[in-house]
Amino acid sequence: MTPEENFMRKIEAGEKIEPKDWMPDDYRKNLIRQISQHGHSEIIGMQPEGNWITRAPSLRRKGILLSKVQDEGGHGLYLYSAVETLGISRNELIEALQTGTAKYASIFNYPAQTWGDMGAIGWLVDGAAIVNQVSLQRTSYGPYARAMIRICKEESFHQRQGYEIMVTLSRGSAAQKAMAQDSLNRFYWPALMMFGPHDSESAHSARSMKWKIKRETNDDLRQKFVDQTVKQIEVLGLEHPDKDLKWNEERGHYDFGEIDWDEFYNVINGNGHANRQRIEHHVRAHEEGEWVREAMHAYRDKKRSAKQQAA
Amino acid sequence: MTETDLKQATMQYVTRLGDDSIILSHRISEWCSNGPFLEEDLALQNVALDFLGRARMYFTYAAELEGEGRTEDDFAYLRDERQYTNLLINELPRVDFAHTMARQLFVDVFNTLFLQQQLQSKDETLAAVAAKAVKETRYHLRRSHEWTLRLGDGTAESHQRMQNAVDNLWGYTHEMFDVDALEQQLIEAGIAVDSAALRPQWLEKVTAILTEATLTVPEDSWVVRGGRTGYHTENLGHLLTEMQFLHRAHPGVTW
Amino acid sequence: MATQELDLYEVFLRSRRGLDHKHVGSLHAEDHEQALEYARDVYTRRSEGVSIWVVRSSDICASQEDDSDSFFDPSDDKPYRHAMYYELPKAVDNM
């Protein structure tokens, strides 16, 4: 059996591929692209919510938000450590993010303007991410699958805390309810876009499916999300942002309105409110940390050479 | 002192401790997504969460002692600069990582000593808070101790930054050891910690760490006081503006 | 300007007394001490562990897939190492 055949045999048998196994170059590249993009999304995703920690309207909410944003960072780290098993370093990852050669989820280019957005992001953005991540627990690359299992376990609270914010707002004062509706309106469609372009338009989809990196298509996952969200909006007593939404008895799913893909590509291509801000923020923090990291190295080297001299 | 007076005094004292915790937590939480590298970012948020947890326990207890139906959030969100009684060192801006770690070193050494005493408090709630906090603080100190060594004895730049931070903060450390009439009463009642008595040990420990880190212990040439009486630096107003605006913009609602 | 990379450490957690340490992921740190602390901060946020091991990744020596024939196949022909290899009378077969 050639290495390729052996690789495909494992994929087809549902066995995991592990770091030191032979794998096609394109499989490796594809994984690096997808996992690092996923990791970068967690890291950049800390910013819109981190932006509200100091302004959270109650101490309970502040604690929850701080823990949640910390989790995002932790999940970024799990994913970075998964992608590092493929022979790419943390420095390379950071550089790719900062120079724009690696992407992150475009949803984080939308501004988190109001407290309602903390609700909508947790509920819809994390909710959409979870639909995707649950599916990825079965991805073919071992370290990625294990990171996903860990992340899914921890993220169940993220969506619930977001929805809880929405419940509280929509049962609160008129101003709070309006805040909830406004956040829902602004984040609903971008959340649907998080699943990526239609399968027919998706550049990486088919091959990723063949290699079982992706386990379900963009459109299937999006449908799942649309379906599960209908009832949740109803319970909140808010207006559904999609006027074309309609139950389709035959399909057993909701039909929904067409996504504004021009907006999707517009934001990806740099015209979102926060594209520049997010990367600049990351670069600034990284550069401001440079002297700290240098000090650590210098201190360690001093300690090591002192040890050697003593020996 | 009547029982009511004692309760009232304890409420004020507990509020001070809550104020210290919430303000420091706020400052540390500003590091979120701004840390020098990812692992440290996450570690800082753990520390911020620990102080937030303390603030909530203290404010909840203060509200209970007061007995007027106020909540932890009323204490955090509905008091102004002049009513806040945190020590000034907690409200100073984070500036850079050196200032943050120098502040942590001073506060963490203080808290290890302070909480050790609070464990003995006749007030059961205070003793219980201390039992939880003392463990957290031991870990905080482990971190700030190590960081002081790394930064003090790292590169020329880190040494200079750390020395600046130590010098800039030193004048704010003195009020940690002030005891006013309110605290004196409570010390005599076996409730409050006599922080004045902690100064020699604090100085010894801090001197040892700074020296090990090749840093110079500053002369006691300037002292700023006033936190406990609500006499704050200008920084606190801005901090509270940010922290309280949303809560205050919608009076009386639930979040 | 990129600083030289911090060392990569692998993290192992014992989730409960009596269980094995299990690999959970990796992180970057300057030395073992710091790696342990960060492992605590990063991998035990929900008190998942009672004990942590950290090992510098470069110190791990791993078997290669290419070696797996010579490493693991030889065990395949030693069924007598497994309990079910032995047929015992029914009355005592729960041994």
From TrEMBL, chain A:
GO-annotated cellular components: cytosol
The record, for InterPro entries, names:
Aromatic_CoA_ox/epox, Ferritin-like, Ferritin-like_SF, PaaA, PaaA_PaaC
Pfam families, alphabetized: PaaA_PaaC
Give the superkingdom in one word: Bacteria
Q: Which organism is it from?
A: Leucothrix pacifica
Q: Which residues form a coiled coil?
A: none
Q: Which lineage do the record's taxonomy fields give for this organism?
A: Bacteria, Pseudomonadati, Pseudomonadota, Gammaproteobacteria, Thiotrichales
The name this protein goes by in its record:
1,2-phenylacetyl-CoA epoxidase subunit A
One GO BP: phenylacetate catabolic process
Q: Name one GO molecular function term.
A: phenylacetyl-CoA 1,2-epoxidase activity
From TrEMBL, chain B:
In terms of domain of life, where is this protein from?
A: Bacteria
Signal sequence coordinates: none
| GO cellular component term, pick one | cytosol
What is an example of a Pfam family matching this protein? PaaA_PaaC
Recorded hits in Gene3D superfamilies, A to Z, give: 1.20.1260.10
Q: Which residue windows are coiled coil?
A: none
* Gene Ontology biological process terms in this record: phenylacetate catabolic process
Record protein name field: Phenylacetate-CoA oxygenase subunit PaaI
Q: Which organism is it from?
A: Leucothrix pacifica
Q: Which gene specifies this protein's sequence?
A: paaI
Automatic annotation (TrEMBL), chain C:
Q: What is the top-level taxon of the source organism?
A: Bacteria
- One Pfam family here: PaaB
| Descriptive protein name | 1,2-phenylacetyl-CoA epoxidase subunit B
Q: Which organism is it from?
A: Leucothrix pacifica
